[in-house]
Amino acid sequence: MKTKLITLFLTAVLVMGSAGSAFAAVTPADSSANNTTSNTNSGSNNTTSPNTSNNGSSLFSDVTKGFWAEKHITKLALEKVLLGNNGKFRPNDPVTQQEAVTMAIRYMNLEKDMDSSASIAFQSGFVVDNYFKPYVKLAFEKGLLDKNEEMAPEANKNAWGSKKASREWITKILVRALNKEADAKAAMTTATTFADNSKISSSSLGYVNVALKLKLTTGMEGNKFEPQGNVTRSQLAAFFSRGDAHTSIQYDNVAQGVITSLTDTNLSLYGEDGKVHNYALTGSTAYFTADSEAAVSASTVQAYTKVKVIETQGNAGYVEVIDPKVQLESNEGKFQRLHATGSKFTVLSNDDYVTFDFDSATVFLDQNGKTISAKDLVPDSMIDVKRETFSGQHKVIVVQVKSAPINKSGAGIVTAVDAKNGTLKVKDGSNTEETLTVSSDAIILYQDQVLKSLSEIKVNDVISYSVKNGQVTNLEITQTSSRTVRGTLINISSSSKLVTYVKEGSSKPEVNLLADQVEVVVDGIQDAKITDLVSDDTNGDVIELTITPDDRVSKIQVVGRKVEQLQELSVVGYNKKQQILTVMNAKEKAFVFNVKENTKLDFGVGNTTLKDLEGLLPEKTKVNLTVLGDNILTLQKVYKYDGKLLSLNTSSQTLTLVTDAGQTMTLSYDGTTVVFVHGKTNSTLSNIKVGDTISAQLRTTQDKVGRISLKSTGQFEVYSTDVAKNKLSVKSSEGYIESLDLEGVTLLNETGAVIKVSDFTPGQVVNVNFSGNVAELVRKVTLTYGKVETIDSANQKLTVKDFTGQSKEIKLTSSYQIVRNNSISTNINSLSANDRVEVKSDANGNTIVRVLDSLSRKFNRYSASTNDFYVQRASLTDNNFVFKFVTNVYVHKGDTLLNLQSLAEGDQVLLVFNNNQIIEIEKQ
């Protein structure tokens, strides 16, 4: 019996550490001494079984959905290891010694060895409530408890049974269960490495040493053992539950095996006992996985995976995915023939003929997943035979046709292109989608031109095709929205609207008209324009052109441009006539480059033209160049350095910073140097600190810093936009409104894609990067609105179902805030399941979860013209019955999307508000 006790406590026990698990073992939800009544003689002790008609955490009214131990409490309650008290579990109550012993006996399924009818009397002073006496008596008989210790007079100054179980007390029982008492006695004089070693009882020291040696405990935070620390009921339940992986204890209502059939309402299980178990699935069924403690949706459970099922009243009360791997094996080969018996077929696989048996339950599918009959299989079709691997019979479950020798012609619209694997998906006139394999030597035509690659076919192209032996051999694009061509750019003119290029694989120049709006994409250049392209007979850009059906170029993308970035070069001289710039690097090596008409000039002020260069580039001027071969793409006079401030020496009037490229620079400044900080007037050097990111802008002479701008980020709400003036007004959290000039400012959406001023709308949240008082970047902030489904406090994660019905897992940052009614909490457990929330990142990237206000009322009517939503008054004096709703208000019932017109007077609705406007209406 001690062997079983080893299993019990090894797995349930002392992972003494981390939040929510400090010695996480739990007791049965039986009563304490205060609950003992006259009916304890019947063994009920005023306890109640869990309400098995409810789901998961609803088994007990005080265990909320999403509670960290919900899985473990649900499992053990349905296994009848733990019971409730008047519908409650009391998860945070400390465990008493009699409760701990009782749960251990139940967990080991030893109640059958207990004589509940016998009259039990312990010695005077050893007080145990009547209900628990049979359990305690059995524990003494099984060697779990030692009478000399537990019944010693000094041990029973208080009632033994209602005494709270301490950590060292359970450790002692554990080591005895492991038959390691001799080792414990030998280690009685050895000190542990715990900081509170002196607090461990001398009689328990050896047991703690053995538990440490066997790695049964690692202690608590701060390297403490806390020998007299208490254990909560939810903690103890978690460890008994987690012990399932290490025990062979069987319960009458628990089965484990592989799902052989699964529908929305039924589950069939091929059990490890070799029997088939059938269960009904209901709305009360709780679903979990072995690798997580959070509840999952029913869709997570898949057929032919390994699960554990706990039965209650003929239903599956609890389903846990033990192994998500599908327990099927694949056998591929060419179908040869169906036998006359109608229950066998032969396949040629790896040069061997293999015959398979099948029955009426076997499913046959064609290439598109449609069900067919076995007699529909065509000889020489490539098929995949899937057999189960769990029963020893290797029954054929599914036969999937991978490809079949087909000869046909057809037409349709392309829905997907996989050039790498040589396949197309095509939808025909009857809206049936089919996957076609294209031969590597297929002829692909578009307007009498032979296309070289399948990648030139686009989604939504209309095609006609011929199939021979299962592969497309001829394909013609009869209608297209666009096509792509790759080549070398020779010449381009936005004025004459012409682009000349040599197509890849050809030597003959081709000409196309430019569309009215041409998108230009060049890596490293935001908002690239036609003037950024390099055209040349020999060294022009390699480009990919997107050509519309009317033969106009709508997009030009530069492919593989090999540009070089040259920093901190000194000008030797500029030849205005030849447009040649000579520069020298730090090692005094000279370089000569061509300045072109399309060279971008950046001198930090105004618009600079080529005719201005001679006067702006005197000898020794510092410049940065971006070059392609011998040609300068961008020429920038060094007028600023951005980086992190390392030091500020007011005596020598120098500052040192490290640039983003890792270069350390020491720069001079003087008393005329000005400082700019966003939101501050009359800023001085005292507003700049070591570690700040700054922009040190040089004077035109490049000898000293004339201006220092502090880099900062703020979060704002868009107040208004002015597209004509390229301005954006934003409002701070304090209510201040600021106008931003967006000339040269990078504008991004939530995914980082470049957008325009017109893409912003009032009310949107944005992060703004400033250099001093000047905006450099404006980016939309991702806002997630939805309902909290689960709370994982151990891993600091939330699951939120958003307004599209999708469940999103959100990992909180290390510095997060929960905001409810303007109060801020840094405890994730201040959230509750079903809370409506807004989740976003602040300007520093920290997670902010704001709990939204909600109100449950009865619907009256609404006005679409004024966006007013009326509810029935609670009383004649109730004036809070009209609310504004947003135009895209989310209306639903459960996961079903509704519209406002579907609401009827008197419907109970839950209203969710954001900024005093209804953003969600849930019909109850």
TrEMBL record:
Question: Which Pfam families does the record match to this protein?
Answer: SLH
Return the InterPro entries for the record. SLH_dom (IPR001119)
Give the residue range of the signal peptide: 1-24
Q: Which UniProt keywords apply?
A: Signal
Q: Where is this region: Disordered?
A: 28-56
Q: Where is the SLH domain?
A: 56-118, 191-254
Q: Does the keyword Signal apply?
A: yes
Q: What is the protein name for this chain?
A: SLH domain-containing protein
Which species is this record about? Paenibacillus selenitireducens
